[in-house]
What we know:
It is built from two helices and no strands. By secondary structure, it is mostly helical. It has a domain at 6-47.
Amino acid sequence: xxxxxxxxxxxxxxxxxxxxxxxxxxxxxxxxxxxxxxxxxxxxxxxxxxxxxxxxxxxxxxxxxxxxxxxxxxxxx
Length: 77
């Protein structure tokens, strides 16, 4: 699936409009939208939402790979 250029993406339009009308303008609604977008970006950066490569291995003929899911620990209330 091909990606659209950034200037055609609806999310880019919403971000630009929120910055122009909310941060630089006086619209409270667009200011809240801009704040939500900026907080989401900061949270994702803080939490490290980018995938991390753990290992790269080459398989030799006859070798197999077993993939298993790891359960996360549940937080106690």
